[in-house]
Design brief:
Elements lengths: L6 H27 L4 H9 L18 H11 L4 H19 L5 H12 L5 E2 L20 E4 L5 E10 L7 E8 L8 E7 L6 E4 L13 E10 L4 E5 L2 H7 L2 H4 L1 H22 L15 H31 L3 H33 L6 H8 L9 H12 L14
Parallel strand pairs: 1-4, 2-4
Antiparallel strand pairs: 2-3, 3-7, 4-5, 5-8, 6-7
Helix pairs in contact: 1-2, 1-3, 3-8, 4-5, 4-8, 8-9, 8-10, 8-11, 9-10, 10-11, 10-12
Length: 402
């Protein structure tokens, strides 16, 4: 199989590479201050990336899975927090613009908000009682009631709401109070500027990805106008976790892929050129160092090939259990590759790699969440194993929902 990128993916990758160089200088300060680098998001807007996930018939770029993976793979090498946060905008806009069950007029309205008005949309999908080991727990706990104007009133709590404070709207799901089906949800865009109804708790003081500001958000009777109510999603686990694997968690897996590649690049550059006192050759000639770099580069490249194969599956065969299976295996492979990178690469880099001004230390902190971002690496292994054996993941005790 030829893993060469198509024309659109090559163009998007080049845009991502150029932007990575532009946003990289802001990454250290944003990490230190736990601040969303708004200038970096402005640069992404100016480059036309806000419409990446929106189909061309609605005025967007229509970037499919492979093209978007190529983009975030590059962006993450400049600033992983910006890449991860902005990927949630891609998730929100692509899902909002293409799900068949959503209102066509609302899709057009969302596209206009993003492309014409430059709206940034967050996608807080995690629940306060959820676990990345248990995909079924991502059923929304936010509730929605019908409002008199045809819109909604929503209440509840969201966790890990990346870039909420920089966004204009939040793409969200809620359980409609008019339905008895616990797996039925309704999707909408929530205007975030409702201070009397929405309160952000600053709890995101964490090891890595600090500039995503993935805080807790408490929502009480907030209003969703009728023109921002997208529509229903039935059988949430099947139609979201399985059918939307390429979109809902494929892109941010690509962010961690790019981050891992950045770490390998740092090791290659520093260990391949730095000379120890008293030696004439670069320290990379030491067999322990060359073996470590060889191993981690091989693991990361294997993960890259699996990620692009999964994206190719998504673009050519569409959503389904086979595509989900490919993404599960790719994310698991990447988590394992990063584990080896952290173990072998950091030891080979030595204390010099841990000096904060050098840049590797921030990447090391950022990459630690790769294995626990949903689906958790253990969940990936479990579900991949079940699908490999021809078993139904929804019947597994650890994945079943009440």
């Amino acid at each position: 199989m030829d893993f060469q990128l198509d024309e659109q993916s090559l163009r998007m990758a080049e845009i991502g590479k150029q932007l990575a160089a532009e946003i990289a200088p802001r990454a250290a300060d944003a990490d230190e201050q736990r601040a969303i680098p708004t200038e970096s998001f402005a640069a992404l807007r100016s480059a036309g990336l806000y419409g990446a996930g929106i189909s061309t018939d609605l005025g967007g770029l229509g970037a499919r899975s492979m093209a978007w993976l190529a983009t975030v793979e590059q962006l993450a090498q400049g600033d992983a927090s910006t890449a991860l946060g902005f990927n949630m905008h891609y998730v929100a806009t692509r899902i909002a613009a293409e799900l068949p069950s959503f209102d066509p007029e609302v899709k057009k309205h969302v596209a206009a908000l993003v492309i014409d008005d430059g709206a940034l949309i967050s996608a807080p999908l995690s629940e306060p009682s959820s676990s990345s080991l248990l995909p079924g727990t991502f059923l929304p706990t936010v509730t929605a009631t019908r409002a008199a104007d045809g819109g909604l009133r929503v209440s509840g709590t969201k966790m890990f709401a990346s870039i909420w404070e920089a966004s204009d709207y939040a793409f969200m799901f809620a359980r409609p109070d008019w339905s008895d089906d616990p797996t039925s949800v309704i999707a909408f865009l929530l205007p975030v500027e409702q201070p009397e109804h929405i309160v952000v708790e600053d709890v995101w003081h964490t090891l890595g990805m600090r500039a995503t500001r993935s805080n807790k958000v408490n929502i009480t009777d907030a209003h969703v106008p009728a023109e921002l109510v997208l529509g229903p999603i039935d059988d949430f686990v099947t139609n979201w976790i399985v059918a939307q694997a390429a979109v809902s968690w494929g892109g941010y897996t690509g962010c961690y892929l790019g981050l891992a590649e950045g770490m390998v690049g740092w090791l290659t550059e520093n260990l391949g050129t730095r000379t120890a006192k008293g030696y004439a050759q670069p320290m990379g000639y030491h067999p322990t160092i060359s073996s470590a770099v060889g191993r981690v580069a091989t693991h990361v490249e294997a993960a890259r090939l699996m990620m692009y194969q999964a994206a190719w599956n998504a673009d050519t065969t569409g959503p389904g259990l086979g595509t989900c299976h490919a993404y599960l295996k790719a994310k698991l492979m990447l988590a394992d590759a990063i584990g080896r990178l952290v173990e072998l690469g950091t030891a080979a880099g030595g204390l010099n790699a841990l000096m904060r001004p050098r840049g590797y230390e921030r990447m090391l902190r950022d990459v630690t969440t790769a294995a626990i971002m949903p689906p958790n690496a253990y969940a990936c292994a479990e579900m991949a194993g079940l699908i490999t054996m021809g078993l139904d993941p929804s019947q597994a005790p650890s994945l079943a929902t009440a």
